[in-house]
């Protein structure tokens, strides 16, 4: 009898436990932060003013920004000035009047937008800058440390063409638009390293306006004058395809070390694989998009007074060469945004 | 003192520059560098030949670069989508021809001034391209169709194909203008539209033909430029290339008021620009400095011309800029 009772008690208790576990599974726990978190983003408006939407970097950033806006239910608009600084300044002025909560700005050069960014701050709008820095930094900058990127590129060249390499040490530099943040900061880093290495001779330092055909014409002339050219530093992969084409046409692929940098889209990796670029310094534009999203969330959650915080978030840089490039080293845009 | 025409002044200027560079810059006067020099302005020269025909007919084609970029981008996009290479090329060609025809009709039949018609159509064509054809500024040549690279990067007997294309276009157009009946008609309409019309020339179809021709030249130039770097940079529409083309044509001595000049003027203008760019790149002069020097040389050419050939009531034409 007693045994029977004990058995049934044990059975009953274990039943109870089992039931409780089931209940607990159904109930779960509410994360106390969640409601407030989601509430933070209701009715918010984020705007993006790139230099232009028609290239891989802007499309990568925008696809990330749009994705988070959709997930968190805030509105997101893009104003595309299509390479016109005036149109960009106008779009910014218009946006300041419309008073969104946050503007992500991609500055064409270090001066043009500086005053407008101050105005936005005075109007109580957060502004974040991406990849090209303006002289005035507002809440934050997400992008490459171009001084550091220049150093990195120069060091890659020094390794290939410097002392003990047995090469001529002749180097050509192909810049973009001279006043762009990517050019002014990068050339400083390059020149600082080259100064420490007198064996490196810069035989040409020209601007090609981010245009591949111009980069090709310049490189052809330089190669003609200096058949023993050892390396080229280009400032953007979209332009440096022209550098690679000139090297290839001269039959010197592999002899001339071409260093370039960019956002790391799949076409750039293809060009590393086929030898157009010897080394690609990638600042991973998709990652930068995610960094922007993180800063946006942080600003909306902590609500600092505009102008009181400044966050510099330099992107990690990866050097990709034929040996180190892997199938997942580069990104492709999600198909929905790739076509537009 | 013999009067020199603008073309001769520019030619003399070119000879002086060329000689100076040849003496001062080691490696300038070599076969390889001369080829590189011409190669770097071959596309500019092809475009200028197309523009020259229109300007001789007293028009102007401000949509040339937009048509060039968009028709080439269309061909590349179709190749990427898997169309056979020749169909894609044919459709790009047809696109350029149709746009040229529309522009020509707007000018010849709707009688919109060429300046406005081509300005508007240029913006329209680029907008259409951005909206419907390509989402990115850089339109790549798909790797499977890399056979096409021969056009922009290949050589025949050691001479780059773009140079041969430039030479071919220049020779063809020179013969057409000098010996072709239609070519003579182009001069006639450009010199005096009303008189040409009263004489019974088919002036309207002739105008349409000019713009169809310039658009197709734009397409060929676009293919040459883009296959040389395996991508079409459609952002070129926003660059100063269009003005460089007009500059080469006008610098060489083709009057914007029409009816004058020929292919020789284009070649002289192209050579001067090419020599300047090449020499300054060898000297490693910075970009901004290059622009200053380029402008000063051009100003010199214009000033010398206006001193040697002063304008008066007899030489000034209506419509002179």
Topology, pairings included?
The complex is a heterodimer of chains A (340) and B (321).
Chain A: H1 2-27, H2 34-40, E1 45-49, H3 56-72, E2 75-78, H4 85-98, E3 102-105, H5 114-122, E4 126-130, E5 140-143, H6 146-161, E6 170-175, H7 181-195, E7 201-207, H8 212-225, E8 231-234, H9 237-249, E9 257-262, H10 266-273, E10 279-282, H11 285-302, E11 311-314, E12 318-321, H12 335-338
Parallel strand pairs in A: 1-2, 1-3, 3-4, 4-5, 5-11, 6-7, 6-8, 8-9, 9-10
Antiparallel strand pairs in A: 10-12
Chain B: H1 6-24, H2 31-56, H3 64-80, H4 85-108, H5 114-133, E1 138-140, H6 149-153, E2 155-156, E3 159-160, H7 161-179, H8 181-191, H9 193-198, H10 203-229, E4 231-233, H11 241-251, H12 263-282, H13 287-308
Antiparallel strand pairs in B: 1-4, 2-3
Helix pairs in contact in B: 1-12, 1-13, 2-7, 2-10, 2-11, 2-12, 3-4, 3-5, 3-10, 4-5, 4-10, 7-8, 8-10, 11-12
Question: How would you describe the overall organization of this protein?
Answer:
The complex is a heterodimer of chains A (340) and B (321). Chain A has 340 residues and is an alpha/beta fold. Helices cover 47% and strands 17% of the residues of chain A. Chain A is built from twelve helices and twelve strands. Chain A has helices at residues 2-27, 34-40, 56-72, 85-98, 114-122, 146-161, 181-195, 212-225, 237-249, 266-273, 285-302, 335-338, and strands at residues 45-49, 75-78, 102-105, 126-130, 140-143, 170-175, 201-207, 231-234, 257-262, 279-282, 311-314, 318-321. A six-stranded parallel beta sheet of chain A has the order 2-1-3-4-5-11, sandwiched between helices. Chain A has a six-stranded mixed beta sheet with strand order 7-6-8-9-10-12, sandwiched between helices. In chain A, helix 9 (237-249) links the parallel strand 8 and strand 9 (257-262). In chain A, helix 4 (85-98) runs parallel beside helix 5. The longest helix of chain A has 26 residues, at 2-27. Chain A starts with a helix and ends with a helix. Chain B is built from 13 helices and four strands. Chain B has a two-stranded antiparallel ribbon with strand order 1-4. Chain B has a two-stranded antiparallel sheet with strand order 2-3. Chain B is globular. In chain B, 52% of the residues are buried. In chain B, helix 3 (64-80) packs across helix 10, helix 8 (181-191) crosses helix 10 and helix 11 crosses helix 12 (263-282). Chain B has 321 residues and is mostly helical. The chains are: A alpha/beta (340), B mainly alpha (321). At the A-B interface, strand 7, helix 8 and helix 9 of A face helix 2, helix 10 and helix 12 of B.
């Amino acid at each position: 009898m007693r045994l029977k009772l004990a058995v049934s008690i044990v059975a009953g208790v274990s039943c109870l436990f089992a039931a409780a576990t089931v209940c607990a599974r159904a109930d779960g726990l509410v994360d106390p932060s969640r409601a407030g978190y989601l509430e933070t983003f209701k009715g918010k408006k984020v705007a993006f003013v790139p230099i232009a939407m028609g290239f891989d970097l802007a499309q990568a950033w925008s696809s990330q920004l749009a994705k988070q806006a959709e997930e968190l239910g805030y509105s997101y608009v893009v104003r595309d000035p299509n390479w016109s600084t005036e149109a960009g300044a106008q779009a910014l002025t218009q946006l300041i009047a419309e008073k969104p909560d946050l503007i992500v700005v991609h500055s064409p050069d270090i001066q043009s937008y500086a005053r407008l960014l101050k105005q936005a701050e005075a109007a109580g709008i957060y502004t974040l800058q991406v990849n090209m820095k303006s002289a005035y930094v507002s809440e934050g900058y997400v992008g490459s440390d171009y001084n550091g990127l220049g150093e990195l590129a120069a060091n890659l060249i020094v390794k290939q063409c410097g002392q003990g390499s047995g090469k001529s040490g002749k180097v050509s530099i192909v810049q973009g638009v001279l006043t762009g943040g990517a050019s002014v900061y990068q050339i400083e880093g390059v020149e600082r390293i080259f100064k420490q290495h007198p064996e490196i001779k810069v035989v040409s330092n020209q601007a090609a306006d981010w245009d591949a055909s111009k980069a090709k014409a310049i490189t052809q002339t330089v190669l003609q004058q200096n058949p023993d050219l050892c390396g080229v530093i280009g400032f953007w992969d979209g332009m440096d395809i022209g550098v690679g084409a000139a090297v290839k046409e001269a039959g010197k692929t592999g002899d001339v070390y071409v260093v370039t940098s960019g956002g790391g889209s799949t076409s750039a990796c293809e060009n590393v694989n086929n030898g157009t670029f010897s080394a690609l310094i990638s600042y991973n534009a998709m990652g930068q998009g995610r960094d922007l999203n993180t800063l946006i969330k942080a600003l909306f959650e902590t609500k600092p007074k505009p102008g009181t915080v400044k966050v510099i978030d330099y992107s990690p840089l990866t050097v990709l060469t034929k040996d180190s490039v892997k199938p997942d080293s580069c990104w492709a845009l999600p198909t929905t945004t790739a076509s537009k | 003192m013999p009067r020199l025409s603008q073309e001769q002044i520019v030619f003399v200027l070119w000879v002086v520059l060329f000689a100076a560079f040849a003496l001062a810059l080691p490696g300038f006067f070599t076969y390889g560098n001369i080829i590189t020099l011409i190669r770097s302005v071959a596309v500019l020269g092809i475009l200028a030949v197309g523009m020259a025909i229109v300007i001789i007919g007293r028009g102007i084609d401000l949509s040339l670069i937009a048509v060039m970029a968009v028709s080439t981008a269309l061909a590349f996009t179709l190749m990427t989508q898997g169309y056979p290479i020749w169909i894609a090329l044919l459709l790009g060609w047809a696109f350029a021809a149709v746009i040229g025809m529309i522009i020509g009709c707007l000018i010849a039949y709707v009688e919109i001034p060429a300046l406005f018609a081509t300005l508007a159509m240029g913006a329209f064509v680029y907008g259409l391209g951005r909206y419907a054809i390509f989402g990115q500024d850089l339109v790549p040549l798909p790797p499977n169709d890399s056979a096409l690279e021969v056009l922009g990067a290949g050589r025949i007997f050691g001479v780059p194909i773009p140079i041969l294309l430039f030479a071919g276009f220049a020779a063809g157009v020179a013969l057409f203008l000098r010996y072709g009946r239609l070519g003579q008609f182009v001069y006639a309409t450009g010199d005096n539209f009303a008189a040409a019309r009263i004489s019974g020339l088919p002036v309207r179809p002739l105008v349409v033909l000019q713009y169809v021709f310039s658009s197709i030249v734009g397409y060929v130039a676009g293919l040459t430029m883009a296959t040389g770097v395996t991508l079409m940079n459609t952002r070129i529409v926003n660059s100063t290339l269009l003005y460089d083309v007009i500059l080469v044509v006008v610098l060489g001595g083709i009057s914007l008021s029409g009816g004058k000049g020929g292919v020789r003027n284009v070649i002289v203008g192209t050579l001067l620009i090419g020599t300047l760019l090449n020499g300054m790149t060898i000297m490693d002069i910075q970009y901004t400095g290059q622009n200053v020097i380029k402008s000063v040389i051009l100003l010199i050419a214009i000033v010398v011309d206006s001193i040697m050939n002063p304008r008066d009531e007899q030489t000034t034409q209506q419509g002179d800029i």
